[in-house]
Design goal:
Strand content: under 5%
Strand order of the largest sheet: 1-2
Mean pLDDT: 84
Number of helices: 15
Largest sheet: 2 strands, antiparallel
Structural class: mainly alpha
Helix content: over 70%
Shape: globular
Order of helices and strands: HHHHHHEEHHHHHHHHH
Number of strands: 2
């Protein structure tokens, strides 16, 4: 009995030290940080709506945005359509994709105790892409079958990578990366095989989608993405305290009353939902789940009660900025948004890897 109490006290002390090192997430601090990030996100969304290959009158566009289109000033019908039917839905999809991938990345890093854990690097995004391709080729790929098959693919890839990486000492960074490479290689072969079954006219558009494409948004897909993002991020935020304890180690977390297997399954389900829906609607947008949670932890707190919601807001802003660059830098042509996020994420990944 005394030994158990000693273990619990020791784990509690380590947990307190860990959280104090990054700053304990009080309710006040969480509200202030998330409030500031929300204001930043709104400003970025407004600015992004103004930018594009087609120039829009700034004052009239702002009036239209803040009145929900009730007052559009001198905007023509074409300009109004560009703003509300093309740019704004795409920007809102970028918000959901960024929030989903960043929150999923933060949860993977906490659950696996590995700063390099990220949906794209672990092959989970590729698993969702395989599921999406199967829906496109073998099923009627409507707005529901694609997210469902992508969710199944992401969930399957998650469990395969985790099982492959799991050793006697746990899922070490090296084993985790190696497992991700193995699974990604296998899934890439499946993608190539399925691509050969497509019509030639669809291959080019699919290739662009695979690298990250937010241009195919519809009202239905935007609703699906929004609902999945709210549910997934909320579920992960609810599990923030158990994730804090799991960062100490599974044995210490179990001693402190965490149902380790149950929490692991719940986090995997929520994160796979976020990744699956994001990939189904936007393709593989890489490194968001690596870059954003890392920067959030560096600048705010190691407490997941703050990290997960803050990462969701910061990830949304990051993808909106990346997509704005992708669609304007060589306008009227576009770059895949995944190419922009990789330009930021790959150097950070190398930096983190070298630190180890």
């Amino acid at each position: 009995m005394s030994r158990s109490l000693n273990n619990e006290n020791s784990a509690s002390n380590r947990n307190s030290a860990s959280l104090d090192h990054g700053g304990r997430a009080t309710l006040r601090k969480t509200l202030v940080v998330c409030g500031a990030l929300s204001v930043m996100l709104i400003l970025i969304v407004v600015v992004a709506a103004m930018l594009g290959s087609e120039h829009l009158p700034v004052v009239d566009s702002l009036r239209a945005l803040f009145t929900g289109g009730a007052k559009s000033g001198a905007l023509t019908a074409t300009q109004r359509a560009i703003l509300f039917d093309i740019r704004l839905p795409r920007i809102l999809l970028a918000v959901t994709v960024g929030a989903s991938l960043a929150a999923a990345g933060a949860s993977y890093q906490a659950l696996l105790r590995n700063a390099l854990a990220e949906p794209y690097l672990l092959g989970i995004s590729n698993g969702a892409a395989v599921g999406t391709m199967i829906a496109l080729v073998f099923f009627s790929a409507n707005e529901w079958t694609r997210p469902l098959m992508a969710f199944a693919g992401a969930l399957g890839a998650t469990f395969v990578v985790y099982r492959l990486a799991r050793g006697r000492a746990g899922a070490t960074p090296e084993r985790l990366i190696l497992a991700g490479v193995i699974v990604t290689t296998f899934q890439s072969s499946l993608i190539v095989f399925i691509t050969t079954l497509m019509d030639a006219t669809r291959i080019r558009s699919f290739t662009f989608w695979l690298l990250g494409d937010l241009s195919q948004v519809t009202a239905g897909s935007l609703w699906i993405a929004t609902i999945a993002t709210v549910i997934g991020v909320a579920a992960l935020t609810v599990k923030a305290r158990p994730l804090n304890l799991l960062m100490l180690g599974e044995r210490d977390a179990f001693d402190l009353g965490v149902e380790v297997e149950r929490v692991r399954v719940q986090v995997f389900l929520a994160a796979s939902l976020l990744v699956g829906v994001s990939v189904a609607l936007s393709g593989s947008v890489g490194y968001v789940g690596l870059v954003v949670p890392h920067l959030v932890r560096m600048s705010t707190s190691g407490d997941n009660r703050l990290t997960i919601p803050a990462a969701a807001l910061a990830g949304a802003a990051f993808v909106v900025v990346a997509d704005t660059v992708a669609r304007t830098v060589i306008a009227p042509r576009e770059l895949p948004v995944g190419a922009i996020t990789a330009l930021v994420g790959a150097p950070l990944f190398i930096y983190l890897l070298k630190r180890r």
